[in-house]
Amino acid sequence: xxxxxxxxxxxxxxxxxxxxxxxxxxxxxxxxxxxxxxxxxxxxxxxxxxxxxxxxxxxxxxxxxxxxxxxxxxxxxxxxxxxxxxxxxxxxxxxxxxxxxxxxxxxxxxxxxxxxxxxxxxxxxxxxxxxxxxxxxxxxxxxxxxxxxxxxxxxxxxxxxxxxxxxxxxxxxxxxxxxxxxxxxxxxxxxxxxxxxxxxxxxxxxxxxxxxxxxxxxxxxxxxxxxxxxxxxxxxxxxxxxxxxxxxxxxxxxxxxxxxxx
Length: 262
What we know:
Layout: H1 4-18, H2 31-41, E1 44-49, E2 55-58, E3 61-64, H3 84-105, H4 112-137, H5 147-151, E4 156-157, E5 160-161, H6 163-177, E6 198-201, E7 205-208, E8 217-221, E9 226-236, E10 239-246, E11 251-255, E12 259-261
Antiparallel strand pairs: 1-2, 2-3, 4-5, 6-9, 6-12, 7-8, 9-10, 10-11
């Protein structure tokens, strides 16, 4: 829990840090994301045991697993407590690790809110738990909607449900959904067809009003029909589509798979 005095310091700390918490590649956590982490972690300038019983300091910086006892070598530099600047440095370092975990493990596009939510999760529970959550949710297969439910499984500390983690996971799930899902990114075109090229149908081929297998079929051109590419390519329904002006006067969209060079 953060009292009023500490909260004021905490807010200024996060604002100061927001311009420096930049990932080495990919996405970076936002200022709102940093505030989200700070509000859920709180701030302590002296060593303390977190709700799961692990030795911690600053804004949720893990010193070591297990209780603080004053003898573990990793505690020695913190025995006299830390300053605001030191807490800021620890936050920078820990957030950078969490950013790297998310950037290296997530292979689908994310909104800023989704990235911030996953960074909060990784900051709190580490990259190994992030990997398990990603696998079980299927996020990397595009199953965005399963993530909030999967996050809610990670509420245990010391074998018990911790109210603070219940709240945090729920808030992360809400944040993850707050901006919707990103638009799918089309793969880059790797084929050889170009605008103005002469093509021929390699078998009976539907010509459609728009790109996509659900678009209206204008006609079906017989194998061997020739034409000129006038627009495209557009990726839709797992095919690359080209608009072709066929020599018989038909103009429409056909899948590249059945268009050869004339």
